[in-house]
Amino acid sequence: MRGRQGSAAVDERYTQWKSLVPVLYDWFANHNLVWPSLSCRWGPQLEQATYKNRQRLYLSEQTDGSVPNTLVVANCEVVKPRVAAAEHIAEFNEEARSPFIKKFKTIIHPGEVNRIRELPQNSKIVATHTDSPDVLIWDVEAQPNRHAVLGATESRPDLVLTGHQENAEFALSMCPTEPFVLSGGKDKLVVLWSIQDHISTLASSDAADAPKEEEKEKEKVSDSPKIAARGVFEGHDDTVEDVQFCPSSAQEFCSVGDDSCLIFWDARVGTSPVVKVEKAHNADLHCVDWNPHDVNYVLTGSADNSVRMFDRRNLTNSGVGAPVNKFEGHKSAVLCVQWAPHKASVFGSAAEDGFLNIWDYEKVGKKKEGSRMPNSPPGLFFQHAGHRDKVVDFHWNASDPWTIVSVSDDGESTGGGGTLQLWRMSDLIYRPEEEVIAELEKFKNHLATCGPKP
């Protein structure tokens, strides 16, 4: 837990950030969580309206046992760009729930939810990791809504994926090109499944055909259909912390772990590493992401507080190859990295220091004299400082460029529970400088014509 001094510094930093919200953000919403959520993900967009869009949001409730752990499906209103008034986005209460987020459905989860991932081709299908060797698959639309009270029967997953020999808690990925699932665990293994045969029946079974709640009450996790692994991949020497599919291939993927290794795999050539980067960082690796626009680039985040970018073309089979870029702006372990879905050179990184940093690798080495952030680390162009404790997950919104959901696991010093935030930085921050200057000039001239006449 933070000392009193550390807590005061966080409060001061937060107060300063809050005063800048109307300037930095196009839209911002703060949602207080009674229980921490270790994961947050966007689901499908439901409808588009004039000023806002409705979209599903997946999160969880990690409880102390007095009520069950849950997987939560929420409906979220995403305000469109340049709609929210600056004075409105600045007015929020840290202790309150946001009017933009409404709980839609509760699934009583067997054990705590450590990680949530949606199937890109059908984001109503969700995978979760808990403190067990199994991966659980949920058809969230067909699952009945449950009342999370002590003693309530656990919801029954639609599928259970087996193949790990020990707990698999965090490393989880779903394939963008085919219905494949990838997982890593404490058994040092990377395991691959296909849910192809089951996905068609899951997606077509309407909620109306789902068993009634009373019937479902009698069923247990043990009654769920089980799927054995399609492949088991060995090569790590310690816990596998994260896995990621190649965006263009269901057969290629990568993984990182507590052995400091980044490993590339290809299911077509066997179950041994294709390339193993032995010392990707000089510490445990927590996260990895593969660039959806350029499959040569992979990001890794580590307990050494840094993010590194590797180019697959530079790596030899023996794993020798330095990162093409190192991004050093965090003061604590990096927990999550993700490329932006709409711009090839932009990515975000979240860390235990409470910051979510937005970087652009094209800005590295292009520092201009008199730039807005002269002392900032190369590539860093925006720092989201709205969380007061470790940022455990975030997700770019593929349906709404530059919009992010992020969640922090708040310790006692910040009131416990968690904080979920929906936000979009002001477009004046990322648009080309000439364009922004031209717009501000136009605005200045407009003000001059509107001003009082002499």
Automatic annotation (TrEMBL):
InterPro entries: Histone-bd_RBBP4-like_N, WD40/YVTN_repeat-like_dom_sf, WD40_repeat_dom_sf, WD40_rpt, WD_repeat_RBAP46/RBAP48/MSI1. Residues 12-79 form the Histone-binding protein RBBP4-like N-terminal domain. WD repeats lie at residues 233-275, 278-311, 327-362. One of its GO terms (biological process) is chromatin organization. Residues 209-223 have a biased composition (Basic and acidic residues). Keywords: Chromatin regulator, Repeat, WD repeat. Residues 204-224 are annotated as: Disordered. Pfam families: CAF1C_H4-bd, WD40. SMART domains: WD40. Belongs to the WD repeat RBAP46/RBAP48/MSI1 family. This is WD-40 repeat-containing protein MSI4. It comes from Rhynchospora pubera. The lineage of its organism: Eukaryota, Viridiplantae, Streptophyta, Embryophyta, Tracheophyta.
